[in-house]
Every structure is written in C-alpha cells, then in structure tokens.
Amino acid sequence: MADAAAAAAAAPEVYAAAEAEEKMPEIRLALCKGRMKDGVFKLFADAGIKITLGNERAYRPTVSWGNFDAKLLKPQNILGMLVQGSRDVGFGGHDWVLELDLEGKVVEIMDTKMDPVRIVAAAPDPDVLKSGVGRGGRKLIIASEYSTITQKWIKEKGLDATFLRTWGATESLPPEDADIIVDNTATGSTLKANGLHIVDTILTSSTRMFASKAAMADEGKRAEIEKLVMLLESVKAARERKMVTFNLLKGHDIDSVIEKLPCARMPTVSELYHGGGYAVQVAVHSKLVPSLVPLIKSWGGTDVIVTAISQLVS
Ligand SMILES: Nc1ncnc2c1ncn2[C@@H]1O[C@H](COP(=O)(O)OP(=O)(O)OP(=O)(O)O)[C@@H](O)[C@H]1O
Ligand SMILES: O=P(O)(O)OC[C@H]1O[C@H](OP(=O)(O)OP(=O)(O)O)[C@H](O)[C@@H]1O
Q: Where is the signal peptide (predicted)?
C-alpha cells in the first residue's frame, strides 16, 4: 500500500489518467465469438487490457481498462449492430462486410491482419471454368455460404449457373450436389481432404476492427476509440519487430554504422561508461534480424542482444 501511494504521488498525471479512463464515454464493444476470439483477446492482453469471461457460456466479459460495455457476439451479427448503431466498436471479417454489402456503412479502423483467409472458388474438375458445364453436362450448380459474393462472381465470370446456399460443410457437396463451391480457405487442408482444386481466388480477408459511423461522429467516443486503436496497433507493430542492442567500442566509426542501420527514425545511442564507445538500440523488422546480426559483428559491434518488444508506438 505504501509503495502504491508513493508511486501515485511520484507520477500523479499517469495515475490520474488511469482513474479518469473509467469515467470516459462508454464504448459499447462487440467481441467476436468463434475462431477469431482467441486472437482478439490476446491482442488486448498484449496491450495490457485483460478481458475476462465469467464462464465459458457467459457472453458479457469485463474489460480491465477504459469504460467498455462488452458483449461476445457472432461476427456476422456484429457488423449489423454497428450499422444500426447499437454497438460502437466491433470485430469481424472483411469478407462479411462484402457479403452483407456494408462497405461505407461501417468504418474500418484497424486491420489486425490476423486469421488471414482467401475466399476461393474450388471444384473437383480443375478445368470446370473452361467447360462451363456441370456433372454429366448439367447446368453448373455453385454452392456457398457467401450468397452475395458468389452471385456477383457468377455474373462477373458470365457463368450459366444455379446458386445453392449452404450452411457450413460446403466442401462436402461436390461432385454429386454441386460442381463448384465458394468458400474460405486458410491452410487449404479442407479443400485437399475433399479433392477440390482452386479455380479462382475471389478475395482475401482478415480480422478487422470496425466502428459505427455514429460513434466516430461523437467527439468523446471517437477520442476513446482512437486511443484503443493506438494501443492495439502498437502491439501489431511490436509483433513484427525485434529490439536489437549492441555496443560499438571506442575506435569504431559510429556515424558510418548508424547510417547503415535499417530504421526509419534515429536509433537510440548512449555513451558507454568512461567514454568507452556507444550502446546502440534499434527496433527492426524481425525478418531482417538474421541478416543484420552478422553485419553488426562485421562492423565491429559487440554484445549484440535481440529482444522481443511488447508494444511500439511511433
Ligand atoms: N480458417 C478459417 N475458416 C473459416 N473462417 C475463418 C477462418 N479464419 C478466419 N475466418 C473468418 O471467420 C469468420 C467466420 O466466423 P464464424 O464465427 O462464423 O465462424 P467460425 O469462427 O468458424 O465459427 P463456427 O465454428 O461457429 O462456424 C469469417 O469472417 C471468416 O473469414
Ligand atoms: O483451409 P482450412 O484451414 O481447412 O480452413 C477452412 C475451413 O474452415 C472453415 O470451416 P469450419 O471449421 O468453420 O466449418 P464449417 O464449414 O461448417 O463452417 C471453412 O468454412 C473451411 O471449411
């Protein structure tokens, strides 16, 4: 207690901001049930915001930061609720924005890039689009859960086809009950297990965060939403990067090393004890680390440390 009181006294602005957060305008948050849930919960957790569900069947989680009224909902419903204005912020797939024809009716505020999928047309016959006919010469039957997307695609391709709406397990329909399916694919294992070949890629999708137009028009809510986006984006940025720290001892040309570092902004450089050289710290894309570390060594760098970053705000 004494420690907490001392910390609060030493950093009054930070503690006051944390307390004030609970009195900020309420944001009605829709979290997604289903396969997107764990990734979204982890994104919040990595930003220091804990989402707690009372039990597995509870749909009203509590959020440890800010002033959220949170609910767990199916992503397809979330998008509709943002349009009708009963939720302020929510998560869903870009595919369902297109399927429900909601482009311009909800505001995309962040692409988490999580759960990437492709919406593809697939068939047992890889040449089905060339032949344009179905099993035994019948008119093509094209099955999908995505009604709008598929019917638009049929038109664009100029196919003479009957559309069949499915409710899951779409890959099981060909060859008897359908000639082509339109479905999402991530690893491709369901298509493969059912002997289906991709004949066209229609679009790509990922888990995105959306806001209602009304919430974005409300100054108070918008400010809170932007704070949330900044925090979640900082996790996304950090996940793509690593912190590389190294020493460059006296006698090496620090300026020429700094010039060669792959960073958009200036790296942090601090002087070593007794003017023995410099410690350099730079956040770099993870994929560059294996190339960068040997180069640092070749430039005379020592004591190279590569660490994970949890949040990065530019
Ligand atoms: N591997 C995947 N398979 C299916 N949908 C995925 C996948 N990865 C991401 N998604 C996205 O998840 C959303 C579908 O969510 P939804 O909750 O309806 O399905 P689900 O998570 O599979 O749940 P359920 O098992 O209850 O059907 C879509 O936007 C879809 O693009
Ligand atoms: O490319 P993959 O990694 O195999 O993933 C794609 C599959 O996962 C989903 O099915 P889901 O498990 O949600 O069942 P459903 O078809 O009944 O919706 C989706 O509809 C595909 O069938």
A: none
